[in-house]
């Protein structure tokens, strides 16, 4: 995928032949694929760690992938270097890609802290351009749990400086809404 | 890319052979690719419309791609149906992918309105799960320009209901900062 984008339209490679070879591979895979319904069951049948998400999933070609790990202080951290497929402004990471990485990392930080929820609000602040081709540190931590409301923060750091920071408000759907008595989704 | 993820680890396809064929294609492409520096020049040499971004770019396999068009009322709109590579919760679009689509669409709405800037703050509100495999409408419009500050909003709609809404504050770097006299970046 990265090689395709790197080559570009000016490449001397035989692009029609490349397209034909990729189509052949896709057709071969589709011939042997389970139904969509069966695949959706299979991909969620594990023990909580998914391999298919668009940020950390090693089986998802969209994912950089970012490898996240839990730290003893309760936070989550990962390192990643992004190439051309993730470009926004020239030579810089797309702001929406930074949002994607942070949204996911905040969710993993909630999981690591033991209380998870659905994203209610996510606020991103862009402090400086995030560089391509340089190692980025992506971090997040759960800050507070107040009833159903979970607050989580994170940031993307390059060369020791914060490029993007994020604040998320997550809602724990397992707890009842105030004044409603019983849990409902 | 979608076929690989759809097939999954339980597939009867010869995955080692698939990996070998994909590696061969990548090596062929890399052999004919320009240097990274040259490619960065080439990919930004057009007339403002890029073909490589991770949201709308037809040359970027990461992109769904979303096809955006300008409307006579000054807003921007596009339609897209997302599959397994963009999954967050089971059967739903990843919240970070929605953020990626909206960040980009807000930027395009600014461009369409004639005044663009760098993203300062982006706030996303998640109203209901965004479905996979259903047509989504992605919309954005520039709301106001006040000195350097540009405000832009957008939403992702499925079946007539807003799933995610976004508000962006963009900074026009072409104008001087208040009280500083001259433009600087």
Automatic annotation (TrEMBL), chains A, B:
<protein>
    <submittedName>
        <fullName>PaaI family thioesterase</fullName>
    </submittedName>
</protein>
<dbReference type="InterPro" id="IPR052061">
    <property type="entry name" value="PTE-AB_protein"/>
</dbReference>
<dbReference type="InterPro" id="IPR029069">
    <property type="entry name" value="HotDog_dom_sf"/>
</dbReference>
<feature type="domain" description="RHA1-ro05818 N-terminal helical">
    <location>
        <begin position="2"/>
        <end position="37"/>
    </location>
</feature>
<feature type="domain" description="Thioesterase">
    <location>
        <begin position="91"/>
        <end position="161"/>
    </location>
</feature>
<dbReference type="Pfam" id="PF20859">
    <property type="entry name" value="RHA1_ro05818_N"/>
</dbReference>
<dbReference type="InterPro" id="IPR006683">
    <property type="entry name" value="Thioestr_dom"/>
</dbReference>
<dbReference type="InterPro" id="IPR048654">
    <property type="entry name" value="RHA1_ro05818_N"/>
</dbReference>
<dbReference type="Pfam" id="PF03061">
    <property type="entry name" value="4HBT"/>
</dbReference>
